[in-house]
Amino acid sequence: xxxxxxxxHRDDVxxxxxxxxxxxxxxxxxxxxxxxxxxxxxxxxxxxxVCLGALELVRxxxxxxxxxxxxxxxxxxxxxxxxxxxxxxxxxxxxxAVVYGKPAMARRLPVSTGLITVVVTIAAVAWLxxxxxxxxxxxxxxxxxxxxxxxxxxxxxxxxxVAARLRAEQTALLAEMDRSQAVVAERARMARELHDMVAxxxxxxxxxxxxxxxxxxxATSREALGVIRENSVQGLAEMxxxxxxxxxxxxxxxxxxVPSLDALEALVEQARTNGSASGLDFVLHDxxxxxxxxxxxxxxxxxxxxxxxxxxxxxxTNAVKHASPGTVTVRVSRCDTLLRVGVDSPHAGRxxxxxxxxxxxxxxxxxxxxxxxxxxxxxxxxxxxxxxGTMWRVRAVLPAEERATER
Length: 407
Description:
The structure is a single chain. By secondary structure, this protein is an alpha+beta fold. The chain has two domains: about 10-170, no CATH class; about 255-405, Histidine kinase-like ATPase, C-terminal domain (Heat Shock Protein 90), CATH 3.30.565. Helix content is about 60%, strand content about 10%. It has ten helices and five strands, in the order ααααααααβαββαββ. Strand 2 (about 325-335) and strand 3 (about 340-345) form a beta hairpin. Helix 4 (about 85-100) packs antiparallel against helix 5 and helix 5 packs antiparallel against helix 6. It is rod-shaped and about 130 Å long. The relative contact order is 0.06.
């Protein structure tokens, strides 16, 4: 199967027609480049002209072949009366070879034509020994070196433009990837926040509603309904706060209060109320130095304080749902540049009484909160079954410095 010959570009066809027509017009008018007499007839100058004009049709598709044949043609033109149109067409073939040729040829042609110009100039001066011999070198430079240099300059500009466009596209792609990652991270943060705020209240509602339905006692039902109402109101308030945060994103509104470790006492008291029906008691040991004045600890960064609060909140929620009757201990301490959070709950045997189902998302959320701040998180059962039974231990170590939160 013969290879398909590419169709010439319309601009190349136009150059071919104009070049050949101009050459015929100059020949008809008797305008020649060589004034000395030649053995060949005057019409012989039309042969190189037509050949180089035809090469214009393949200046884009076969630039190397066009330049080689064109060089032979322009040399042959010097043995005739000569045509200015033939020389001009050759300069365009040289230019096209640099612009459309392979990168190696585009790099070599300006250098080689420059060396040829220098060599021809030196040879002409040495041979003729007249100032006019410098014109030979100048003409040589105009015919071969100047178009090669012009083509190289244009090609460099085009390659620079292509590289700039690729960089812009890559930058836009990276920006889109960053935006997508930011959206995913924000969704994960919202999921953690929603889970930590609502799961505690819904778990208490599920446990006490189950108790009210399973125990036929007016007093128990009234107490359970009271706890259900309290958790419903608090859960609704938390949902409204989250909706307010979402609506206020990017707007100039008042800052919404972020939960802090100072509210741990109220959080433990609420867990004590929710877990009383399951035989649970809750104790808080806050071993941090009081305040940030004098010898007290410096204030914690807001992200660290929020993460610690949510870890305690989720641990208490899990204790209400899954812990066996006993005492749940919450311990918060700070030493040097670390904040340590620990929650221990009884985990002996299968829990009795009403329980709410769990999805496991709470442990994932706590681990994500700790790791996003550069801290660590562990959770699991410890101890051997016996009089005290095993304990479910939650441990989180968070950095207490501002630089640690800038990740």
